[in-house]
């Protein structure tokens, strides 16, 4: 990949705190305009990685290039910090100030020309639907409104790269949905590169083009959900299978033994707990196209045997399934 198309390049990145290795040889490229997710349990190294990218910490070994500028170059650190908008898990807002005053303060801190600040503050307040509350103290805001303002603060100086650490943490479902929509809209319409650190796998699945799963400072898997699923199938000694669920009106007529006879290509056939659905697990050696063909054969065999089918659903391993499987295997290796 051409380096000019990359916003972030992590090269053998390591960070130690005394004897503790928080990041251990991470290599990662994030493309311009991409929404990239960092996933992992507490202590995996996600926040430390973001702090190094934003020049708040220095790497012990390796390097990070931000738009081709090294975080190790002391002459580039101020320039890099102005190209980045960092949202920490805490909003870091001044609650005794108004929304407008907060944004003006941070715009000045980032060195924006004074004559541009007023217009820019109005733009982001309008974008985040906070214009009518601009003169109210932030301490009166709800959690969701504070998080909106925190993201507005991150964007005030028009950074090209957004680092978002747990942006929906501690929010109610409605507020989290609004924040997700805002992040997606901001990334897509504004052309920002977004690095998203989150425990919320639903957020990652909805928002991210690609993800990296970290544990103990190392990347265990990287790619799209489909790519990670394929990696699991190809390289794992106990790969995860795709699941096909077929709902029958007259399922009581079919024992599991009969179903296995009718559908011999399935690795496993079992009745779901509801008594109306059968689960078909196919061997991971089959491709997606081959599973489609085998599913069609299974339906044909069932119908010819008198089954009344109401629905057929093919379920692939979710990002949550993949994440839990990968992290648990890594934990078991270390025991």
Topology summary:
Elements: E1 6-17, E2 20-31, E3 35-39, H1 46-53, E4 61-66, E5 69-70, H2 77-82, E6 84-87, H3 99-109, H4 114-127, H5 143-155, E7 161-165, H6 173-190, E8 193-198, H7 201-207, E9 210-215, E10 218-223, H8 225-235, E11 243-248, H9 256-262, E12 268-271, E13 277-281, H10 288-304, E14 309-315, H11 319-333
Parallel strand pairs: 3-8, 3-9, 6-7, 7-8
Antiparallel strand pairs: 1-2, 1-4, 4-5, 9-10, 11-13, 11-14, 12-13
Helix pairs in contact: 3-4, 5-6
Strand portion = 25-35%
CATH superfamily of the largest domain: P-loop containing nucleotide triphosphate hydrolases
First-last Cα distance: 38 Å
In terms of quaternary structure, what is this? single chain
Q: What name is given to the CATH topology of the largest domain?
A: Rossmann fold
Task: Give a nutshell description of this structure.
By secondary structure, the protein is α/β, with parallel strands linked by helices. Helices cover 38% and strands 26% of the residues. The model has no long low-confidence stretch (mean pLDDT 89).
Describe the structure.
There is one protein chain. This protein is an alpha/beta fold and 335 residues long. It has two domains: 3-232, 3-Layer(aba) Sandwich (Rossmann fold); 241-316, Reverse transcriptase/Diguanylate cyclase domain (Alpha-Beta Plaits). It is 38% helix and 26% strand. The protein is built from eleven helices and 14 strands. It has helices spanning 46-53, 77-82, 99-109, 114-127, 143-155, 173-190, 201-207, 225-235, 256-262, 288-304, 319-333, and strands at 6-17, 20-31, 35-39, 61-66, 69-70, 84-87, 161-165, 193-198, 210-215, 218-223, 243-248, 268-271, 277-281, 309-315.
């Amino acid at each position: 990949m051409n380096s000019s198309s990359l916003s972030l390049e992590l090269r053998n990145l390591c960070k130690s705190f005394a004897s503790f290795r928080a990041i251990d040889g991470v290599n990662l490229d994030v493309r311009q305009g991409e929404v990239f997710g960092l996933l992992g349990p507490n202590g995996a190294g996600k926040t430390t990685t973001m702090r190094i990218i934003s020049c708040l910490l220095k790497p012990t070994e390796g390097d990070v290039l931000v738009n081709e500028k090294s975080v190790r170059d002391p002459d580039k650190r101020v320039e890099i910090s102005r190209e980045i908008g960092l949202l920490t898990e805490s909003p870091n807002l001044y609650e005794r100030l108004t929304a407008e005053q907060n944004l003006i303060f941070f715009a000045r801190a980032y060195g924006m020309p004074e004559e541009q600040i007023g217009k820019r503050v109005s733009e982001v307040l309008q974008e985040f639907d906070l214009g009518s509350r601009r003169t109210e103290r932030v301490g009166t805001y709800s959690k969701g409104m504070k998080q909106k303002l925190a993201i507005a603060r991150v964007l005030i100086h028009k950074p090209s790269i957004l680092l978002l650490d747990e942006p929906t943490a501690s929010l109610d479902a409605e507020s989290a949905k609004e924040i997700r929509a805002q992040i997606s809209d901001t990334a897509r319409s504004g052309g920002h590169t977004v690095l998203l650190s989150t425990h919320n796998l639903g957020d990652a699945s909805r928002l991210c083009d690609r993800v990296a799963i970290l544990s103990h400072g190392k990347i265990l898997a990287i790619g799209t959900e489909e790519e990670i699923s394929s990696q699991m199938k190809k390289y794992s000694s106990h790969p995860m299978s795709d699941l096909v669920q077929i709902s029958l009106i007259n399922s009581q007529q079919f024992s599991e033994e009969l179903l296995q006879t009718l559908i011999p290509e399935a690795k496993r056939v079992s009745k779901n707990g509801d008594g109306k659905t059968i689960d078909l697990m196919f061997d991971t050696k089959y491709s997606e196209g081959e599973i489609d063909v085998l599913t069609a054969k299974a339906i044909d065999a069932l119908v010819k045997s008198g089954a009344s089918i109401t629905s057929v659903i093919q379920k692939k391993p979710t990002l949550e399934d993949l994440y839990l499987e990968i992290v648990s295997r890594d934990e078991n290796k270390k025991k």
